[in-house]
Fold:
Amino acid sequence: MMQTASLSLRIRGRLLVDALDWQVRPGECWCVIGRNGAGKSTLLRTLAGLREPDSGCVRVGGRELAAWPLLELARQRAYLPQARNDAFGYCAIETVLAARHPYQDMRYWDAEQDHQRAYAALRALDVEALAQRDIRTLSGGERQRVAIAAALAQDTPLLLLDEPANALDLAHQVGVMELMANLCRRDNKSIVIVSHDLNLAHRASTHALLLMGDGRWIAGEVADAMKPPVLSACLGYPIETVQHGGRTIFIPAQRSHHD
Ligand SMILES: Nc1ncnc2c1ncn2[C@@H]1O[C@H](COP(=O)(O)OP(=O)(O)OP(=O)(O)O)[C@@H](O)[C@H]1O
Structure:
């Protein structure tokens, strides 16, 4: 369970998020939606504990972020940043094994289990065959999948993912989002995903948090929060939905030539 209480975020005097009171419960998959610069990545970094709130607080498991010893916090939440500088000369399996570090001081744990978890994560992201490859020789999408595998291998109840489907081909975009939805449903994980793809987000999420860019925010179940009028206001472009095969598809409205 993750909670924010009166969380406000500011950058250079600009209010990004104003007094956010929000709860992410086990089994919930939240997508975070907003325009470029609305504050999505800033929010995720704050939730991960990598940035101080400007006011208010973030609690994980009922305890304020700052009160968690780092190693213990690393067993609570995994964070996939939007951009990475992949380390020099490491192969894929080593980067995923590094995510097991928070468990290595635990006596009941052994290296064999770490290997199993790491390989299972690579398998879940369809990159097991690349385990021995130098990270820098991987394609952008392959590297992104290895990074997601590392977040998964960290084996935390809370996952914070900044645009995980970035650079992925269509099949892997769908696959990754389905994997996340399943982790919520099956394993009761809490997941927060920043996404610019409304259709992918809608398909995988139970809830949505809309950042309006001026501090205002809207949080709720997808059926309520992802309605065209609010989404259009949030993204600054008219959005329509069509129903297709029982699914809701979001499309940018056609503007006439006279607009
Ligand atoms: N270190 C920084 N110094 C100055 N301004 C910053 C810094 N980090 C972020 N910003 C600004 O804060 C705002 C929010 O940035 P943020 O990365 O959170 O947006 P975002 O919603 O994730 O955008 P995008 O959709 O482009 O990823 C932007 O206007 C950005 O330029």
